[in-house]
Write a structure and sequence with these properties.
458 residues, alpha/beta, 7-stranded mixed beta sheet, 6-stranded mixed beta sheet, 16 helices, 13 strands
Length: 458
């Protein structure tokens, strides 16, 4: 199939040491030969071996644009499985754009966002889950997210889904063959075998689906809200975690009137932290709006950090906060242990089931224990990436859920002693739902939507 030759700048548009222009398509080498002049004048770019690098100049109408290195990767052994040229030029914005303009002038078309990876998918080099992993690698916010995306790029999800789909299609084929040829293929007692297959497949799918919440946290970060009474030390804690004076800290209660949001990295995990107004009854209209906003953030938070002022006794404001967080995942920080503590820690333990850590935000005490506790709460202390893979894509999560639902219907049909051809309908639904994950049962519109979210040049 003939395709247009595309080109784009593959590096960030800022002054840097190097800029890369990528070309892919059947005319990539032809276009390169028109604009690249090798230092060795006897070298013919059209005849050189694949996966070689050549030194020379980009020239347009006898004008030398830049001194470059040119990489040649002939299909199918390339990222897109097409002929691919990469031009490494100096990294100035002007010169990089000028090289791209020369490539386009001599026959290439400007690539759309994600079009190189889209071609890799359409040409069968990678499946759709691997293509989406490419974007996840680029957008990784922490080491865990990066490692998980790399595992997906290696094809771990594809392998798991492919195995389950093969099991399902084998059962479908057996049932249909038995219906067509009952004299030679017997379905007697097959219900029992099919139930075992369904339970095994459901177990594997459920394991993947159960990883989705942790997968979202890996990819997007933990939605974290800091709560407490005014002057409890919430803003001091935020500044300590961020490593900068992001929040105004004073001895005056109610200094924080609105929310302040920051993203930080703790032990390789991202926290999207919201510092909120101190929760108390107030007649100040603006402060009250901040308090109401703080309460609203509780509903969508993955984690609540409840900062208790250890130098004051628990009061009705504390009791209100405790009621708000009783069913939420939370950590209680008993702050200001560098001063004389008045708060009764035993009373906190009696009223709350959440872990309590004494800290001093001022003197950085107890923070290491707090950071480790976050990992313990969300990832049981550590994440092993040797064979583990976490579902980070909402599209994958929905398809897994739909696939499990279809298998549940088959299981129910067996229990209701329905005819065997009913089984194949829901089995095929499960097969197709799982196909959406790896791109074997996906519509063109969805493919286009997915790759539009990629950066240019990838």
């Amino acid at each position: 199939m003939k395709t247009e030759t595309i080109a784009a700048i593959a590096t960030a548009m800022s002054n840097s040491g190097i800029g890369i222009i990528r070309i892919s398509g059947e005319n990539a080498i032809e276009i390169a030969s028109k604009i690249f002049k090798p230092k060795n004048k006897n070298k013919d770019i059209k005849k050189v071996e694949s996966h070689t690098i050549h030194y020379g100049y980009i020239v347009d109408e006898s004008i030398t644009i830049d001194e470059v290195l040119l990489l040649i990767m002939k299909g199918p052994n390339s990222y897109t499985k097409e002929d691919v040229i990469e031009i490494d030029c100096h990294g100035g914005v002007i010169v990089t754009k000028r090289v791209l303009e020369t490539v386009l002038k001599h026959g290439a078309r400007a690539a759309e966002p994600g079009e190189f990876t889209k071609r890799a998918f359409l040409n069968g080099r990678i499946d759709l889950s691997q293509a989406e992993a490419v974007a996840d690698i680029i957008n990784s916010k922490n080491e865990y997210a990066l490692n998980n995306a790399v595992n997906q790029l290696k094809g771990k999800i594809f392998e798991d889904i492919k195995e389950i789909r093969e099991n399902i299609i084998h059962d479908i084929a057996y049932i249909e063959a038995a219906i067509d040829d009952p004299e030679h293929i017997n379905l007697e007692h097959f219900d029992e075998e099919l139930i075992r297959h369904i339970k095994d497949n459901k177990s594997k799918l459920t394991k993947l689906l159960d990883s989705a919440d942790n997968g979202r946290i890996l990819k997007e970060g933990i939605k974290t809200v800091i709560l407490g009474k005014p002057n409890a030390g919430k803003s001091s804690l935020l500044n300590l975690l961020v490593g900068d004076e992001r929040a105004i800290v004073t001895d005056i209660p109610g200094t924080t009137r609105d929310t302040l949001e920051e993203s930080i990295n703790i032990n390789g995990v991202s926290l999207n932290i919201v510092d909120t107004a101190g929760i108390r009854n107030t007649d100040d209209i603006i402060e009250k709006m901040g308090v109401d906003k703080a309460k609203n953030f509780i509903h969508t938070a993955d984690l609540i950090i409840y900062v208790v002022d250890g130098t004051t006794a628990l009061d009705k404001n504390d009791l209100e906060i405790m009621e708000l967080i009783k069913d939420k995942k939370a950590i209680v920080l008993l702050n200001k242990i560098d001063l004389d503590i008045i708060t009764d820690e035993e009373e906190l333990k009696n009223r709350l089931s959440h872990p309590i850590i004494p800290i001093s935000a001022k003197e950085n005490k107890g923070i290491v224990e707090f950071e480790q506790l976050i990992l313990d709460m969300f990832f049981h202390g550590e994440i092993a990436f040797n064979d583990e893979v976490y579902i980070t894509n909402i599209r994958h999560k929905e398809a897994l859920s739909a696939g499990i639902d279809s298998l549940n219907k088959v299981e129910q049909s067996i229990k209701d002693h329905m005819p065997e051809d009913f089984y194949t309908i829901d089995l095929m639904d499960a097969y197709e739902e799982l196909g959406f994950i790896i791109g074997e049962s996906v519509e063109d519109d969805l493919v286009n939507t997915i790759f539009q979210e990629f950066c240019m040049g990838k």
